[in-house]
Specification:
By secondary structure, this protein is an alpha/beta fold. It has 3 helices and 19 strands. A 7-stranded mixed sheet has the order 2-5-8-13-16-18-19. A 5-stranded parallel sheet has the order 1-4-7-12-15, covered by helices on one side. Strand 18 and strand 19 form a beta hairpin.
Length: 181
């Protein structure tokens, strides 16, 4: 590994660096210091910083969002306490989605085949009506299909098909989700 080359490489354009500084020292501070139930206020802050946020979205003040401008979240979705949205690449979250407490969505990695370990910003897509349970990890380039459930503490590194319930490390199919109308 060529750590010196990695540290010298330019990972973000100057404009992005300025946005990051503004978010870290202004937006994120206002976000995190807001009272627990001020969901609309936090959504407004995220929108000011470029997030696309639907109606009636609940994001808790302890959730960590790396780059609001790379976040899309649909109507009636929620991001729970201490969830980590590490969106170096775009993260798209559909409607009626719950990202539970301590879940970690990671849309970034490094190219391990290159000695310089260049940063890769790879998107994550979470379709409608998905539940990512407590302390689960969803890695880069993953798509989670509609109505799927990622069980608590699961590690998802491959796509999850619609209506599948997955669990474990690495996450494996457990059964189909039955939805009562």
């Amino acid at each position: 590994m060529d750590i010196k080359a990695n540290r010298k490489s330019k990972k973000y354009p100057k404009g992005q660096l300025l946005k990051r500084i503004l978010w870290m020292y202004c937006g994120e501070l206002l976000f995190r210091l807001s009272p627990r139930t001020f969901f609309g206020y936090r959504c407004m802050i995220l929108k000011i910083f470029g997030a696309k946020v639907g109606a009636q979205v609940h994001i808790y003040n302890s959730a960590r969002i790396t780059f609001p401008w790379l976040l899309e979240i649909g109507d009636y979705s929620a991001i729970g306490e201490n969830a980590r949205i590490y969106n170096l690449g775009k993260i798209s979250i559909g409607k009626n989605v719950t990202i539970s407490q301590y879940a970690h969505l990671c849309a970034g990695t490094h190219d391990y085949k290159d000695p310089k370990l260049p940063l890769q910003k790879i998107p994550i897509v979470i379709d409608d009506n998905v539940w990512v349970c407590a302390d689960a990890f969803v890695g880069p380039s993953v798509t989670i299909g509609e109505n799927a459930i990622v069980a608590a503490r699961a590690v998802v590194i491959k796509d999850v098909e619609s209506s599948h319930i997955v669990a474990g490390n690495p996450a494996k199919f457990i059964k189909l989700r039955e939805i009562n109308d």
